[in-house]
Amino acid sequence: MLPKEVKDLKRKIFWSFLIILLISSTLIGFLSVNLVNRSYTNELEKRLLTNAQLIATMIRSDKVDLTSKSFQQGMKEMAEVGEARITIIDSSGKVLIDTRSEAHEMDNHLDRPEVQAALVGKEKERVVRYSHTTDQEMLYVAFPVKVNNSIAYAVRLSMDLSEIEILTRNIVRYIAVSTLFGLLIAILLGSKLIDKMIDSIRALVNMTKQISQGDYERRIYLTNNDELTELAEHFNHMADKLNRLITKLSESNSRFQALLASINNPIIAVDPKENVTLMNVAAEKLFNVSLNDSKGHHLLEVIRNNELDELIKRSLKEGTENQFEINLKVPEEKTFRIYTNLIYREEDPIKVMGLVILIDDITEIRKLEKIRSEFVTNVTHELKTPLTSISGFVETLKSGEIEDEETQRRFLEIIEIETERLTRLINDILTLSEIENIKNKESKSMFNPSKALKEVESMMRPMASVKGIEFYFEIPGKLSYIKGNEDRMKQMVINLIDNAIKYTPNGGKVSFIIYERYGQLVLRVKDTGIGIPEKDIPRLFERFYRVDKARSKKMGGTGLGLAIVKHIVISMAGKIKVHSAGPGKGTEFVISLPRHQ
Ligand SMILES: Nc1ncnc2c1ncn2[C@@H]1O[C@H](COP(=O)(O)OP(=O)(O)O)[C@@H](O)[C@H]1O
Ligand SMILES: [Mg+2]
C-alpha cells in the first residue's frame, strides 16, 4: 500500500471515530441534563408545596395575626431553613408578608399566574419565571389558605434555580472532559491498532505482489493473532499450493518441450481462431520462422498458402482427425501429408482448444512413386513393341502365305533379333532391380580391377574390329585395390565401351584408360563418335532415356545401359561425368572411384 493510501485510511477511520463519539456524548449530555433538571425541579416543587401546605395549615388553625412580629419572625426563620422565599398575599393581591423584601414596598401580586391559580383554589400550580426582584430564574409554588370556606390568602414559596444551572454546567463539563479523554484514548489505541492492521495489510499486499511477479517462495508471518493472521495463513497455504502446482506444471512443460523438440516431424498448434500457439524446432526450420515471432500470429502469416488455410479452417470446423496432401513452397516446392487433430479442453470435452497440425514431408516418396510408375509404363511399352513384331512375323509365317525362302529366312532373322533384344531388355531390367534392391546388402570385397578389365578388353576388341574402329585400351602395370562387386564393375565398363563403339561410326576411335589421381581411380572411356547434345546430358542417366530412340533401337539398345552404370557407380561411392564437345565431336565418360587405402 502506498503511504498516501495509508494516510487516507487512517484519516477516514479517525473521522468516523470522532463523529460517532461526538454524537453519542452530545446525546448523553442532553439526556442527562434534561433528566437531572426535571427531577431536581420536581423535588424542589414537592418540598416547596409541602412547606406551603404547612404554612397554610398554621395560618388556618391558629388564626394567627399575620401582622404580628413573632409570626413574621417565624416565617423568616422558616425561609432561611428551607432556603426559600415565603410570600403571603391576601385575596386582593396585596403582599402581607415577604421574607426577602419589605411587604409594603411590594406591588400588587394579583397578576402573578401562581397567585391567580391559588386564589381560585388550585393547589398544585407551579411556575418557573424570571424574577426582577431577585434577578434570577425562580420556581414559584402557591397554595390557597381557606378561612371560613373562602380563600383568604395565598401562600407562595419560591426558590431560585441557580443551582440547576450550576449542576447543568457541571454535567456538561464532565461529559466534555470524558469525551475528550475518550477521544484521546481512542486516537492513541486506534492509531496503534490501525498501524498494526495497516502493517499487516501492507505485508499481505507485498506478498501477493511478489507472488504475482513469480516469487512463489514468498511467505508471510503475522503475530497479531486476529483475522488478518488467519488470512495470512490462508495466503501462505495458497502460495504453497501455487508453488507446488507451478513446479509440477513447469516440469511437465519441460518434459513436453523435450518431447516436442525430439520429434522430427514439423508440428504446429493453432487456437480456434487459427493463431499459432506452438511450434516445434522441426517446424521452425522447415518454414524458416521462430516460435517467438509467430506465436499469436495467424497461420497465414507464418505459412502463406491459401489452400492450407482453407483446409485448416475446415478441419477446425469439421473436427476429429483429418488428413490431406498439399504442395507448399518452402521455398522450393515440396509435397506434404498433413495430419490434423482437434484438441479439447480436459474439463469440458465439447470446447475446442485448438488444432494440432503434424506435417510429413513426402516429396521423396512421391518422386520415387512417380519414377516407379513411369518405369512400369516404359517397361510395358518396351516389351510390347518387340513382342508385337515377333507375333506378327510368326503369324505371317504360320499362315503359309510366304513361299519365298529368302523372305522366310529374313522374317526368322528379325524374330531372332527381336527375341535377343527382349532378352537383353529383361536382363537389363533384372540387373537394375538387383542393384537397386540389394544395394548395401550386396557382397562387396576388395579387388584389383586389372583382371576384370583385361577380360573386358578381350570381350570388346572383336566388336570394335568388326566396325573397323581403332580400339585403344591401357591398364597400368600396378593398380590399387577398390571396394565393390567385381562383376558389377565389369558390367559398368562394358556398358560404356559398348555405347562408345555403337555410337561411333566406322573408322572412328574408342579408347579406355585407367589411372590413379588424388586417391581416386579414374576411368575414362572416350570416342570420336556422334557426340551428345548439351541439353540431353542432364537426363542421360534416366531409365529408357535416349537421345535418338530410333538409332538406339537399330543398334539393339535397351536404354537402360547408362542407368545401370550410374547405379553401379553410386554403389561404389564413386562419381561419373560426361563431356561432349557437341554432335559429331565425340563423347567422354569419366568415372572416379575411391581407392582402397
Ligand atoms: N558414347 C556415346 N556417344 C553418343 N551417344 C551416347 C553415347 N553413350 C550413350 N549415348 C546416348 O545415351 C543414350 C542412353 O544410353 P544407354 O543407356 O546405354 O542406352 P542404349 O541402350 O541406347 O545404349 C543412348 O541412346 C545414346 O543416345
Ligand atoms: Mg547402351
TrEMBL record:
<dbReference type="InterPro" id="IPR003661">
    <property type="entry name" value="HisK_dim/P_dom"/>
</dbReference>
<feature type="domain" description="PAS">
    <location>
        <begin position="252"/>
        <end position="323"/>
    </location>
</feature>
<dbReference type="InterPro" id="IPR035965">
    <property type="entry name" value="PAS-like_dom_sf"/>
</dbReference>
<feature type="domain" description="HAMP">
    <location>
        <begin position="195"/>
        <end position="247"/>
    </location>
</feature>
<feature type="transmembrane region" description="Helical">
    <location>
        <begin position="171"/>
        <end position="190"/>
    </location>
</feature>
<dbReference type="InterPro" id="IPR036097">
    <property type="entry name" value="HisK_dim/P_sf"/>
</dbReference>
<keyword id="KW-0418">Kinase</keyword>
<keyword id="KW-0067">ATP-binding</keyword>
<dbReference type="InterPro" id="IPR003594">
    <property type="entry name" value="HATPase_dom"/>
</dbReference>
<dbReference type="GO" id="GO:0004721">
    <property type="term" value="F:phosphoprotein phosphatase activity"/>
</dbReference>
<dbReference type="GO" id="GO:0005886">
    <property type="term" value="C:plasma membrane"/>
</dbReference>
<keyword id="KW-0472">Membrane</keyword>
<dbReference type="InterPro" id="IPR050351">
    <property type="entry name" value="BphY/WalK/GraS-like"/>
</dbReference>
<feature type="domain" description="Histidine kinase">
    <location>
        <begin position="378"/>
        <end position="597"/>
    </location>
</feature>
<dbReference type="GO" id="GO:0000155">
    <property type="term" value="F:phosphorelay sensor kinase activity"/>
</dbReference>
<dbReference type="GO" id="GO:0016036">
    <property type="term" value="P:cellular response to phosphate starvation"/>
</dbReference>
<dbReference type="Pfam" id="PF16736">
    <property type="entry name" value="sCache_like"/>
</dbReference>
<keyword id="KW-0902">Two-component regulatory system</keyword>
<keyword id="KW-1133">Transmembrane helix</keyword>
<dbReference type="Pfam" id="PF00989">
    <property type="entry name" value="PAS"/>
</dbReference>
<dbReference type="InterPro" id="IPR013767">
    <property type="entry name" value="PAS_fold"/>
</dbReference>
<keyword id="KW-0597">Phosphoprotein</keyword>
<dbReference type="InterPro" id="IPR005467">
    <property type="entry name" value="His_kinase_dom"/>
</dbReference>
<dbReference type="InterPro" id="IPR003660">
    <property type="entry name" value="HAMP_dom"/>
</dbReference>
<keyword id="KW-0812">Transmembrane</keyword>
<dbReference type="Pfam" id="PF00512">
    <property type="entry name" value="HisKA"/>
</dbReference>
<feature type="transmembrane region" description="Helical">
    <location>
        <begin position="13"/>
        <end position="37"/>
    </location>
</feature>
<keyword id="KW-1003">Cell membrane</keyword>
<dbReference type="Pfam" id="PF00672">
    <property type="entry name" value="HAMP"/>
</dbReference>
<keyword id="KW-0808">Transferase</keyword>
<dbReference type="InterPro" id="IPR031967">
    <property type="entry name" value="PhoR_single_Cache-like_dom"/>
</dbReference>
<dbReference type="InterPro" id="IPR000014">
    <property type="entry name" value="PAS"/>
</dbReference>
<dbReference type="Pfam" id="PF02518">
    <property type="entry name" value="HATPase_c"/>
</dbReference>
<dbReference type="InterPro" id="IPR036890">
    <property type="entry name" value="HATPase_C_sf"/>
</dbReference>
<dbReference type="GO" id="GO:0005524">
    <property type="term" value="F:ATP binding"/>
</dbReference>
<protein>
    <recommendedName>
        <fullName>histidine kinase</fullName>
        <ecNumber>2.7.13.3</ecNumber>
    </recommendedName>
</protein>
<dbReference type="GO" id="GO:0006355">
    <property type="term" value="P:regulation of DNA-templated transcription"/>
</dbReference>
<dbReference type="InterPro" id="IPR004358">
    <property type="entry name" value="Sig_transdc_His_kin-like_C"/>
</dbReference>
<keyword id="KW-0547">Nucleotide-binding</keyword>
